[in-house]
Structure formats: structure tokens, C-alpha cells
Write a structure and sequence with these properties.
Strand order of the largest sheet: 1-8-3-6
Radius of gyration: 17 Å
Shape: elongated
CATH class of the largest domain: Mainly Beta
Number of helices: 9
Helix content: 40-55%
Number of domains: 2
Order of helices and strands: HHEEEEEEHEEHHHHHH
Length: 190
């Protein structure tokens, strides 16, 4: 199992024993099964998550039957749609468990109470979100303008955990290829 949210935060700020305790008590562990929706697109985001174990999938609405897999968030990352959570507006994306997942979770009301108890936490969370966004953009950009087989090879290098834990149909959607093409690519690599 990966580090806790408190241990993770200490990479960015030295926390006092009291701050650690407040953070530990503010979040609670929740298990989600693969396929469970944590946030629906078109609804206001209600929770902030820290991924302890497993993978979350950011989805965007699609014209097809399934939502498009936009990005995958892995262990030791905070995840929420902060613009929705902060401003109480509907999220344009959805969030789903791509595998069985354990998260540390705090709801909107308790998050704002936490911001009052620990005034530094909001700016720290925003900084972490900014760094995560830069990483996401860099990964997404690395898949642009290359053949589908090269996208899959890059995935194996940049996000190898996905191949072990995420359904192939979601990986295909993420890479912008059909499931059949992904199967052919995987066979040719073996």
C-alpha cells in the first residue's frame, strides 16, 4: 500500500504533530470497486480524494455509449475537480474507479472547515494540483502526433501500472485507438 496523504504532504511542507493529527482525522478511508463512479460529469464535485491504492479514471462525455477515458490518476495523488468543488459548479468531467481503489476522502463541507483550521492547506493543495496538471499535460502531449504503436510503447514507459490494472477498452479509449487495434499492437510486441 502506498503512503498516506499526510506522508505525501510532507514532501511539500514540514507538518507539526498537531497539523498531522488534524489532517489524519479530517480524511477517512473509503474502498471503491472498479467501475464505481466517484464524481458524475454535470454534477458538482463533492469530495477530495487521495489515492492510497489503485487507479482512478478521469472521463469526458462521448457521443458513443461509453464516456471517453481522458486520463488515469495513480497512487499517491490527490484528485478532485477543484474548480467544481471550490465554486460549487457542475464538473465537465467524471471520475471513476478504473480498478479497485482505496482512497482517503474528505467531503466539501469538511474540506472548508479544514481550510479554516489549517490556512496553508488550500494554497498547498492548489500548488499540488498545479504540479499534477503540468505532469498530466506533459504525458498527454507525449502521445500527440505519433503512431498508435508508439503511443502504446510510451504508455508502457510512462504509465506502466495501467497495463496491469486497467481494462484494455479503457486504455484504447485513452490512447485514441480501437480496442481491436490495441490488441493487434499488443500481439505484435510479444
Amino acid at each position: 500500500m502506498s503512503a498516506s496523504h499526510v506522508e505525501y504532504l510532507q514532501q511539500f511542507k514540514i507538518l507539526s504533530a498537531e497539523e498531522k493529527q488534524i489532517l489524519q482525522e479530517s480524511f477517512h478511508a473509503v474502498h471503491y470497486k472498479a467501475g464505481e463512479v466517484l464524481c458524475h460529469h454535470g454534477k458538482v464535485t463533492q469530495n477530495l480524494f487521495f489515492i492510497v491504492q489503485g487507479i482512478l479514471k478521469i472521463t469526458v462525455p462521448s457521443d458513443q455509449d461509453r464516456d471517453h477515458s481522458y486520463f488515469f490518476m495513480e497512487e499517491n495523488q490527490f484528485m478532485s475537480f477543484l474548480y467544481s468543488l471550490y465554486d460549487n459548479i457542475p464538473a465537465e468531467q467524471g471520475l471513476e474507479a478504473a480498478s479497485d481503489v482505496i482512497v482517503m476522502e474528505i467531503n466539501r463541507k469538511n474540506l472548508f472547515i479544514l481550510f479554516e483550521k489549517l490556512p496553508f492547506f488550500r494554497s498547498l493543495l492548489d500548488k499540488i494540483a498545479h504540479l499534477t496538471m503540468v505532469e498530466m499535460i506533459n504525458i498527454k502531449n507525449s502521445y500527440l502526433g505519433v503512431k498508435s504503436s508508439e503511443r502504446y510503447s510510451k504508455l508502457l514507459t510512462l504509465q506502466p501500472g495501467l497495463v496491469l490494472h486497467v481494462p484494455l477498452i479503457d486504455i484504447a479509449s485513452y490512447l485514441g485507438i480501437t480496442a481491436q487495434s490495441l490488441s493487434r499492437i499488443r500481439r505484435s510486441i510479444r
